[in-house]
Design brief:
Blueprint: E1 2-5, E2 19-22, E3 32-42, H1 44-52, E4 69-76, E5 88-91, E6 104-108, E7 112-114, H2 121-125, H3 128-141, E8 153-157, H4 162-173, E9 178-182, H5 186-195, E10 199-201, H6 206-212, E11 218-223, H7 227-237, E12 238-246, E13 265-268, H8 273-276, H9 284-298, E14 305-310, H10 314-325, E15 332-336
Parallel strand pairs: 8-9, 8-11, 9-10, 11-12, 12-13, 14-15
Antiparallel strand pairs: 1-2, 3-4, 3-6, 3-15, 4-5, 5-7
Length: 337
């Protein structure tokens, strides 16, 4: 089968930042499905892994990355029960295993959902990783209750990005929250408004803008862009007994003392935790993806696809990574096979 990977962590402009190669098509065992892939999408985690996984020395065999995928089940392992051959599925993958930048992939059925029937392959491929991340942030980490938390304020940092784009919708439609998103360009501001944000504020003068809209403090802050850069300001803007969740990590230790007097909760969100550690509730991602498929099919939430590249080629994968690395992409970029 054809796959695209890399042996060295190189700038995306380098000739061999990605290379196409042939490898053996795998056979599923246990809980695995063998999926023939129809479309993939690219997320910030893709270029971050590409930039760091082979910095010290070249790899002997190319590393296949990529996580979001849509495809058709071609074979199943002996312990599977959720899917059968011919089913159309979508999923966000497992960071510990070979990725979706290939014609075929093995994936544990417990982190796979049914593809939304009303969406194209490209639209569906845009959804899994960002949707799972946004859902887990709101409902697993903060544990939003749409009845008791109705009207509470959530500040979404980087509202027009992949995760922000679905978090706006889930926070509004499922969480009943007052949604404040950050954006600075005209196109990204309009994108956030179209997705349902009640307010859009400029991250360059965030504190002043929040005061202008009458929300100098917020109940929840979702960091989808730069925790270190926002840490002190987030501690200032969060309400007493509020909750901050971040997906971005930190290169330096965080000063949690700034949250103490307000009794603020801080949580990490890492979408791969369940698959990485085979947690007891690993099957929850299967359930979430199916719930999201129903919401998409009902039109309650809408897909966040903005750019589609045709053809599984090195050139298209490079272009998708370039768009992500620019930090200015809106919504999601997908490659159709």
């Amino acid at each position: 089968m054809k796959a695209i990977g890399f042996k060295q962590s190189l700038p995306i402009t380098a000739a061999e930042s990605f290379i196409a190669f042939e490898t053996i098509k795998p056979n599923p065992t246990g809980h695995d499905l063998l999926v023939k892939i129809a479309a993939i999408s690219v997320n910030p985690v893709d270029f971050k892994v590409r930039q760091s996984a082979a910095k010290e020395a070249p790899l002997e065999t190319p590393k296949i990355i990529g996580w979001d995928a849509v495809g058709t089940v071609e074979a199943v392992g002996e312990s599977t029960s959720k899917f059968k051959v011919g089913d159309q599925v979508y999923y966000a993958g497992d960071i510990t295993r070979p990725g979706s930048n290939a014609e075929y992939q093995l994936i544990d059925e417990r982190i796979v959902g049914k593809k939304p029937k009303s969406l194209s392959n490209a639209e569906a491929a845009a959804m899994p990783l960002t949707s799972l991340t946004a859902y887990e942030t709101l409902f697993d980490r903060i544990k939003i209750n749409p009845e008791t938390d109705k009207g509470k304020t959530v500040l979404i940092l980087a509202g027009a990005g992949g995760v922000g784009s679905i978090a706006i919708q889930l926070a509004k439609k499922l969480g009943n929250l007052t949604v404040i998103a950050t954006a600075s360009r005209e196109d990204s501001i309009q994108w956030c408004k179209d997705l349902g944000a009640d307010f859009v504020v400029n991250h360059h003068h965030l504190k002043a803008d929040l005061e202008k809209i009458g929300h100098p403090e917020v109940d929840y802050i979702l960091d989808f862009v730069d925790l270190e850069g926002y840490w002190d300001l987030a501690a200032e803007l969060i309400k007493p007994q509020g909750h901050i969740v971040s997906i971005t990590g930190s290169n330096t230790p965080l000063n949690l003392n700034v949250l103490k007097n307000k009794s603020v909760t801080f949580s990490w969100e890492f979408m791969y935790t369940r698959s990485m550690f085979t947690t007891e509730d690993m099957d929850k991602q299967h359930q979430i993806l199916n719930q999201l498929a129903d919401l998409l099919d009902a039109g309650t939430i809408k897909p966040t696809l903005t750019t589609t590249l045709q053809g599984f080629t090195v050139e298209n994968l490079k272009e998708a990574h370039r768009l992500q690395e620019s930090g200015k992409s809106i919504g999601k970029t997908v490659i159709e096979f």
